[in-house]
Design goal:
Strand order of the largest sheet: 1-2-5-4-3-6-7-9-8
Number of strands: 9
Strand content: 15-25%
Oligomer: single chain
Largest sheet: 9 strands, mixed
Helix content: 40-55%
Radius of gyration: 18 Å
Structural class: alpha/beta
Order of helices and strands: HEEHHEHEHEHEHEHHEHHHE
Shape: globular
Length: 282
């Protein structure tokens, strides 16, 4: 068994390595996420200003508030590996933990070195085994978010880092949240409290996507409040994350670029459609 394989086995107790190079759980578990979600996201991620901006903010923050040197970063519920690839390219050792077989396969084909197809429970994630964990637009899919965050916090060793994003503002709720399998949206103080209850110290807390709350409210929330249903086209809902024309993508990317500099300086962005935190285990 290779050194990399030994490290993976030291983190997860309930997985086996498949012939395709993907580690798999010995058990099956359901998740609150549409089955076609991974495939549809895979079609838009590379061209999306939204996915790209989230990655750029994350890697900027990880360089400023890094995990313990050489420690393994676990990208929990990381879909097709778009975040994992960015973290891997930034020089951090990564393992993707993704329950969807489609997402796990896409991530492996994309170049993520270590892929585990499982939920956190199904993988047998060991306590105190990780130096860093990330959950990017994942926690809102978990009915009992306190138990989920506490379980991931327990998987961190002393000094380990937890990075996370979620959709912000319950007042922006719409049918897109329902289709995506969300249980809630968050306000930043409550999101911070979730990690503090798990015994973590919040080192950085901010919003992201400051340009998006007004368009989301006007185009999604307001019609939803008046009972006006958009066409039930999941692919269009995914494309709303920024795979429009090149001109639109470039304009949105440019308008959001100052946020990257603010994150790099640990300045708080006071308003936005996402919450973003970095926490440390003492």
């Amino acid at each position: 068994m290779s050194e990399s394989s030994n490290e993976i086995v030291s983190v997860f107790s309930n997985i086996t390595l498949g012939d395709d190079g993907i580690w798999k759980s010995k058990d099956d578990h359901s998740v609150s996420y549409p089955k076609e979600g991974s495939e549809m996201c895979f079609e838009v991620e590379n061209s999306s200003y939204w996915f790209r901006h989230r990655n750029e903010c994350l890697t900027a923050l990880m360089k400023r508030l890094p995990p313990p040197k050489g420690s393994l970063f676990c990208d929990v519920g990381g879909g097709n590996g778009f975040v994992s690839m960015a973290v891997q390219a930034a020089g951090f050792p990564v393992v993707l933990l993704e329950p969807s077989p489609v997402g796990a396969y896409n991530a492996k084909m994309r170049g993520v070195r270590n892929v585990v197809c499982a939920t956190t429970d199904g993988s047998g994630l060991r306590n105190g085994s990780l130096g860093a964990v990330g959950a990017f637009d994942v926690i809102e899919h978990i009915e009992n978010d306190e138990i989920f965050v506490k379980g991931l916090a327990d998987a961190l060793n002393k000094g380990g880092m937890f990075y996370a994003t979620v959709p912000a503002w319950q007042s922006l709720w719409s049918e897109e949240d329902e289709w995506a399998g969300h249980f809630r949206r968050y306000r930043l103080p409550g999101f911070n409290a979730l990690f503090e209850k798990a015994g973590l110290e919040v080192l950085y807390s901010s919003h992201l996507f400051s340009m998006l709350p007004v368009p989301i409210w006007a185009l999604r929330t307001l019609p939803n409040l008046f009972g006006v249903k958009r066409k039930q086209d999941p692919r269009q809902m995914v494309k709303d994350h920024g795979s429009g024309s090149a001109i639109t993508r470039n304009l949105m990317g440019a308008s959001l670029r100052p946020e990257i500099a603010m994150v790099r300086k640990l300045h708080k962005i006071p308003f936005g459609s996402s919450c973003f935190v970095a926490c440390r285990k003492g």
